[in-house]
Specification:
single chain, 4-stranded antiparallel beta sheet
Length: 117
């Protein structure tokens, strides 16, 4: 079955950096677009960044210029490099993909990112 396992969250001071990783299994990884979403307390889950099978990327306006999404198809992994972190970036970050035929959604368990002094 499809599994997405995130890692790399934690507590960081404002202005700091973190790198999130997501290891995927059960899919032909190179064919799938991969996304990072986040959900802050009391807020809806929002799309942060997407990387398509072609390697093209898109970002939420709130993270443009600070976050970078990348993928390593040889390792079935997607990454989110987060720089210049702000308290507003505090959230649970989720790795996500969607079956390219059935459009079924797959989610990781989430990793907590807390930006605080």
């Amino acid at each position: 079955q499809v599994q997405l396992v995130e890692s790399g969250g934690g507590l960081v001071q404002p202005g700091g950096s973190l790198r999130l990783s997501c290891a995927a299994s059960g899919i032909t990884f190179s064919r799938y677009a991969m996304d990072w979403y986040r959900q802050a307390p009391g807020k809806q889950r929002e799309l942060v960044a997407i990387i398509r099978s072609s390697g093209s990327t898109d970002y939420a306006d709130s993270v443009k210029g600070r976050f970078t999404i990348s993928r390593d198809n040889a390792k079935n992994s997607v990454y989110l490099q987060m720089n210049s972190l702000k308290p507003d970036d505090t959230a649970i970050y989720y790795c996500h993909t969607q079956n390219i035929i059935s459009y079924r959604d797959y989610w990781g368990q989430g990793t907590q990112v807390t930006v605080s002094s």
